[in-house]
Amino acid sequence: MSHQKRRQEAAWKSRKHSQYPHGKVKSFEELSNESDKQGTTK
User: Fold this and answer.
1) Phi first, then psi: what are they for 26, rounded to 5°?
2) Of 1, 11, 30, 36, which has the fewest Cβ atoms less than 10 A away?
3) What is the spatial distance between Cα 4 and Cα 24, in angstroms, rounded to a whole number?
4) What is the rounded radius of gyration, in angstroms, for the C-alpha atoms of the chain?
């Protein structure tokens, strides 16, 4: 593999990794499951 190809792949991986800097966004279903487990109701 050439050096340029490795640099391109490393840059791509770093961009993909930093896509969710604060963690992945949860779906509404996941959020509702968490609130059910905690027992919080409105």
Assistant:
1) -85, 150
2) 1
3) 30
4) 19
* Percent composition of the chain: helix, strand, coil (DSSP 3-state, to 5): 60, 0, 40
- The span from the CA of 3 to the CA of 41, in Å, is 56
pLDDT digits 0-9 by tens, 2-37: 899 999 999 998 888 777 666 677 888 888 888 877
- Phi, psi values for residue 33, rounded to 5°: -65, -40
Buried b (16+ CB within 10 A) or exposed e, 1-15: eeeeeeeeeeeeeee
pTM (two decimals): 0.40
> What's 27's DSSP letter?
P
